[in-house]
Specification:
This protein has 429 residues and is mainly alpha-helical. The chain is 84% helix and 0% strand. It has one domain (3-426). The radius of gyration is 21 Å and the shape is globular.
Amino acid sequence: MSSGRLRAVAKHPLLKGFGAYFATSILNRSIPLLLLPVLTRYLTPEDYGLLSVFQAFMAFLVPVIGMNLHANITRVYYREPLSTTAGVVYNALIVLLASGALGVAVLGTLVLASGSVLGLPPFWLLALPILAVTNMVGEMNLTILRNQQRPLAFAGYELSRTTLDFGLTLLLVVAVGLGWQGRAAGMAVASVALAFASIVTMWRTGHLRPGIDRAHMASILGISLPLIPHALGSALISFSDRIVLERTLGAAATGVYTVGYQFGTIMQLVVTALSRTWSPWLYKELAQDTTAARHRVARATIALCVALLFTAGLITLGTGFLLPLMTPPEYHGATAYVGWVAFALALFGMYSLFHPHLVLVGKTAYLGAVTFSVALVNVALTYFLVQRVGAIGAAQATFVAYSLLFLLVAAYVQRVHPMPWLAALRRRG
């Protein structure tokens, strides 16, 4: 590749945006890894297992209660004036509050009926829907900042939350001795603080226009309601492995597995940065409705799929050396899980390149159906493999699930929103 071509690639808006968000993701998501040597020494494997169950519930409730409402913002941002976007944001917040209230009611009923669930105290069970709401409020503001192409402001919000989370965790776990609940409290306070800051920012920048709008509400519900099965499915794939492990092999085995899973999620640094850059760029390109733009999208998709798989391989090799250096001997068995998780998340990243096409053309019902179906397959396969081969079966089931999800969504996108893959590779520019 010539030096001129290299300079052109380096200046590509997608790559520049990715670089900014990747740097933020490294700083932001390095916190769990920096905390790992502390948590594995102050928490027993049983405590770490309970923490992983709490985080799994969060992974479940954030997308279910949040319904991917922030997708409605990006969908209209480049096609409508600011006043329309502000109305969509306000009505999305109303939907979010109603969803959160329903979540509190459901979990409140569960607490009254059975008390603790999977070892989690009632207080933390009731706090989960509230934290799901605050997480989505923060995500709405971050979505606006991404569409405004303001990576420094985005980084400021993300790193402020991470710093608060990190500081409170160290204080409450190490100094106060609250165990896994200290870690949960750090996450909760940081989420609530960012939500309040986000509301203030969206109001001051004119991205909140009070007023119930029936047209906006119908559009939001039309896009987001079919995404509930999608959210349920994604959450089941994300957390079912640890729930099955906790029920079949116990909290200690779940704790060791979670450490390996956490190293595998280094891949999530890349996937998160890519998804934050990809959707705004994709929608902006496709809004041009030209053959050249579709060629650019197709070429970028192919190149990024290759890059994701290559990165997963590097992570698998690298963590084989890092994990034993960063954890006590009782966690060293976690290395067996890293590769399966890293490549599973690479496939999830590839899926993330395709599913915005379905949001754009309003085919979210298929997205929900296929994700939920794959999730059910994943739960059954996880249980079957864990019974047969032990904890490694949970990681293998996750890999199979994300492989199916990518293949089914990519094939359907080509049917309803076809892209010129071969023509894009032949034509340059």
